Amino acid sequence: MLSSYLTMAAILFCIGLYGALAKRNAVVVLLCIELMLNAVNLNLIAFSKYGVVPSLTGQIFSLFTITVAAAEVAVGIAILIALFRSRGTVEIDEFDEMRR
Amino acid sequence: MFNIEVTGEFVAFFVFAVIIISGAVLMVSFTKVVHMVISLAAVFLGLAGMFVLLEAEFVAFVQVLIYAGAVSILMVFGIMMTKHQAMQDEPKRPVHEALSAIAALCLFGILFYAIRITELSVPEQFQAGEDNTMEIGKLLYTGYVIPFELVSVLLTVAFIGAIVIAKKEAD
Amino acid sequence: MDSIYSQYAWLIPLFPLVAFLIITAFGRSLRATSIMVALTGSLIALMLSILVLFEQMGSGEEFSERFTWMTIGNVQLSMGIEVTHLTSLMLVVVTLVSFLVNLYSMGYMKDDERISVFYGYIALFTFSMLGLVLSENLLTMYVFWELVGVCSFLLVGFWYTKPEARAAAKKAFIVTRIGDVGLLIAILLLFWYMPDHALDFASIKNVFDGQTGTIAEGITTLIAILIFVGAVGKSGQFPLHVWLPDAMEGPTPISALIHAATMVAAGVFLVARTYDIFEASQAAMNTVAYVGAFTAIFAATIGIAQNDIKRILAYSTVSQLGYMMMALGLGSLTGGIFHLFTHAFFKALLFLGAGSIIHAVHTQNIQEMGGLGSKMKITAWTFGIGALALSGIPPFSGFWSKDAILSTALDHNPLLFVVGLVAAFFTALYMARLFFLVFTGESRSKAHAHESPAVMTVPLIVLAVLAVLAGFVELPWSGLGFLGGWLLPGEEVVHHGSELVMVISTAVGALGIYLGWLIYVKGTISRDVVSSRVPGLVKLLERKYYMDELYHAVIVVPLRGIGQALQAVDDYIIDGVVRLTGAAAVWTGRAGIRMQNGQVQTYGLITAIGLIVLIVVIVGRRFW
C-alpha cells in the first residue's frame, strides 16, 4: 500500500514541477509550488503509517511543513502584489533581472 | 503490486487519487486562474481525505483549514489584486514547455522506477493512539517544543513581512 | 718508408670546410676575400693530396685510423679515415678538379652578385666529397654521400630565380634519393648480417673476399644490388639517369665539378670500394655490367639528337659512366677506375670549354653557334683535345681507358663488346657533330664572341694536358700497366692488351668522326637524311625516348593524385574535425548565452534536467 501512496505523491510532485517550470502566470506558479509541497506532505504521512518505524513524527513534520507553506504563500503573494505595482504585470517571463 | 485485494481502504484511496490527479491535471490545463484555484482546492480536499485514510485526522483537519481555506482564499486575493484577465495561453515558448514536460516525465520515470525496485518492508501495526490529536499535542509540547516556538516566530515574521512588502509605499 | 703524410690525410677535407665556414660567416661583405679563401683552401687540399698520392705511389703503407663515434648497447659506431691507393688517387682527382673549377669560376661567375655564396657551396661540396672518399666505413660514407647530394641540390638550384633551375634541383635531389634509399637499406642489411656489426671497408673485404659462407649468397646478391641501386641514382645510370641532364641548369663550372668529374663518379667509386661484395655474387656483377652497357648505348644515342651543348655533354657523361659500370661489372676494377680517372679530366675539360663558349655567345644551342674556332683559339684547341679523348682516338687518354674496358669485354662477353663499340661509335659521332657545329662553318650567332680571360683558359690548358697524358699511367703492354698493378697490388696484373681491339676501337672512333665531318662540314650526306626517312626515330631521340614523359605519367601523376587525395583528407576530414571542435565551442557558448536569459523558470528547468542527468549517470553506472 505504501508504494501506491508514494506513486501518488510522485505524480503530484511531477505535475507541480511541470506547472512551476512551464506556466507563465506567477500566481499559477505559486499554486504549483503548493502542489509540490503537498506531495511531500503526503509522503511524510504515508511513511508515518507504513514506514519502517511508524511514528507520529511524520505527522508533526507535515504540520511544520504546512505552517511554513502558509508563511511562504503569504510572503509570495505579497511579493507578487508589490511586483505588480511596480511593473504592471505578473507574467513571469517578463522578469529577467537576474541577467543583469 | 496490482494484485492487491480490494479492501475498503483501497477503494477509498482510488477515489481520492482520482480526485487529486484530475484536479491537478485540470489545474495546469485551465486557462482561467479562478478555475485553477477551484481545482486546486479539490486537490487539497482529496489530500485531506487521504490523510484520514492514513489515520492522520489532525493533519487532515489542518490541511482543510489552512490549504483549502486560507491558502485558496489568499490566492483568490492575489488574483484579484493582480492582472489576470490576460491569461491568453498561446504557447510562446514551445521548446521550453516541451522540455519542461520531458523533464517532469523523466523525473517521474526515475521516481517510479525507484519506488518499484525498493523493498518496502511490511511494518508492525502502527498504533496512533486513541486520540490522535492528543498524541500530537503531547509530542509538540514535549519533544518538539523548540521547533514549535520557532515556527510561531517564523509565522509572525512572515506575516509582518508580507504586510510590509505588500503595503503601498508611503512616500 | 713510413706513411708520414697519409697520417695527416684527415686534414685534407678540413681546409675546404674551414673555407666554407669563413665564407659563410663573413662572405657576404667580402667578395674578393671569399674567393681567395676558397682558392687557398682548395689549393692546400690539392698540395696535401698530391703529397699523399706520391707517398702512396712510393712505398707508403695504406693507413687507416678511427675513433668511436657512439656506443649503442654493445654496438660501436666508429668514424675514421682510410688512405688506400684508390682513395689517394680519388683525392687528387677531386682536389685538382675542384681547384681548377675554383680558378675558372673567378672568370665565369665574375658578375654574379652571389659569388661568395657560390664559393661557399663549392667549398662545402669539396669537403663532403673528400670526406666521402676518405671515409673508413660505409656509415660515414653515407653521411657524406647525402652531403654531396645536398650540395648538388644547392648548386643546381643556384640560380633559383629560374623556374627550370628550381625544378631541376628538386628533380636531382628526389631522383637520387630513390637510389640513396637503396644504399641505406644495403647498409642496414650489412649492419644486420656482418659479424660484430662492422661496417668498415676492411672488415667487408675480409668477410666477402674469403667467401667463407658467413653471409648467404642470396643476401650477398641483395646487398650488392642495393648498393648498386645507390650508385645508379648517384651516377645517373638507367633508369635513374633523368636528373643528370636536367641538372645542367646549374652554373657550368658546377656541371664540370659535380656532374662530370666527381659526384657522379661517386657511384663508381662506391662500387669499387665495396667491390668484394660484388665479386662474391656473379648475379650482381652481371646486373652491373648489363645496366652499365645499356646506359652507355642508351645515353649515347640520345646525345646525337640534342641541341643544347651542356645536355649533349651530360648524356655523354651518363654514357661514359655506363662504360665504367660495365667495366666494373665485367670484373675489371682497373678499367673502371682508369676510365673514371681519365674521364674526370677530359669531361671537366669539355664542360669548362662549353662554359667558355657559353660565356662568349650567351646561348647553349649549338645550332645558333658556329665559326667560333677562329675567334676562340685556346678554347677550340682544348675542346678539340677533349673531344678526341672522349671519342677514343689515340694517343689521348680516353683511348687507353676505353681500350682497357673494351678488351676486357671482348675477353668476357662479346655481346657487351659490341655494345661498347656501338656506343663508342655514337660517342664519336655526337662529339664530331658538336665540335663541327660549334667551331667550324659560318657564324650563326649574333653575339660578338671573344676569347675568355686567362683565369678561364689556364684551367682549360691544364686539363687539356692532363687529358692527353692521363692515359699513359696504364698502357696495355706488358710491364706498362702501372695503374692496375698499383691499385691491386696483391693480384697478378692481367695483361689484356690486344692489338685487334685497339685497331677496331680506333677505327670505330675515326669512322664516327669522319661521318660527322661528312655530314656537318662537307655536307656530302644531308643532315636530314635520317630524319626525312624515319622521322619518328629522330623525334624519339630528341625526346630522350620519352623517359621523362613516362616517369611523369607512371610515377609523378599517380603520386600527385595520392597527394591530392591526402590533401583532401587533410582539408575535409582533419580540418573538418578541427573546425567542428571550434564550432562546437561556439555553439556551446551560444547555447549558454540563450540559457542565461535571466528567467527563473529557465534556470529551474536546467536544474531539473541537470538533476535527472546526475541521477541517471550515478545510478545508471550500476548497470554497466
From TrEMBL, chain A:
Keyword tags: Cell membrane, Membrane, NAD, Quinone, Translocase, Transmembrane, Transmembrane helix, Transport
Major location (coarse): membrane
Parts of the chain that traverse the membrane: 6-21, 28-48, 60-84
Membrane topology note: Multi-pass membrane protein
Molecular function terms, GO-annotated: NADH dehydrogenase (quinone) (non-electrogenic) activity; quinone binding
EC code: 7.1.1.-
InterPro entries the UniProt entry points to: NADH_UbQ_OxRdtase_chain4L/K (IPR001133), NUOK/Mnh_C1-like (IPR039428)
Enzyme class at the top of the EC tree: translocase
NCBIfam families listed in its UniProt record: PRK05715.1-2 (NF004320), PRK05715.1-3 (NF004321), PRK05715.1-4 (NF004322), PRK05715.1-5 (NF004323)
Job description of the protein: NDH-1 shuttles electrons from NADH, via FMN and iron-sulfur (Fe-S) centers, to quinones in the respiratory chain. The immediate electron acceptor for the enzyme in this species is believed to be a menaquinone. Couples the redox reaction to proton translocation (for every two electrons transferred, four hydrogen ions are translocated across the cytoplasmic membrane), and thus conserves the redox energy in a proton gradient.
Protein name according to UniProt: NADH-quinone oxidoreductase subunit K
Species this chain originates from: Paenibacillus abyssi
UniProtKB/TrEMBL annotation, chain B:
Annotated GO CC locations: plasma membrane
Transcription in keyword set: no
Annotated TM spans: 6-26, 33-54, 60-82, 94-115, 144-166
Membrane topology: Multi-pass membrane protein
EC number: 7.1.1.-
GO molecular function annotations of the record: NADH dehydrogenase (ubiquinone) activity; quinone binding
Leader peptide range in chain numbering: none
Keyword Transmembrane helix belongs to the record: yes
Primary localization class, coarse: membrane
Protein name, as recorded: NADH-quinone oxidoreductase subunit J
Broadest EC class assigned to this enzyme: translocase
Protein species of origin: Paenibacillus abyssi
Job description of the protein: NDH-1 shuttles electrons from NADH, via FMN and iron-sulfur (Fe-S) centers, to quinones in the respiratory chain. Couples the redox reaction to proton translocation (for every two electrons transferred, four hydrogen ions are translocated across the cytoplasmic membrane), and thus conserves the redox energy in a proton gradient.
UniProt-annotated location(s): Cell membrane
Keywords carried by this UniProt record: Cell membrane, Membrane, NAD, Quinone, Transmembrane, Transmembrane helix
TrEMBL record, chain C:
Annotated localization: Cell membrane; Membrane
Entry GO terms, CC: plasma membrane
Top-level lineage group: Bacteria
TM helices/strands, residue ranges: 6-27, 34-54, 83-104, 116-135, 141-160, 172-194, 214-233, 254-275, 287-305, 312-331, 337-358, 378-396, 416-439, 460-488, 500-521, 600-620
Keywords (A to Z) from UniProt: Membrane, Transmembrane, Transmembrane helix
Gene Ontology MF terms: NADH dehydrogenase (ubiquinone) activity; NADH dehydrogenase activity
Topology in the lipid bilayer: Multi-pass membrane protein
Gene Ontology BP term (one): ATP synthesis coupled electron transport
Keyword Membrane assigned: yes
Domain NADH-Ubiquinone oxidoreductase (complex I) chain 5 N-terminal: 69-119
Residues in NADH:quinone oxidoreductase/Mrp antiporter transmembrane domain copies: 135-427
Record flagged with keyword Cell membrane: no
Similarity comment: Belongs to the CPA3 antiporters (TC 2.A.63) subunit A family.
The name this protein goes by in its record: NADH-quinone oxidoreductase subunit L
Organism: Paenibacillus abyssi
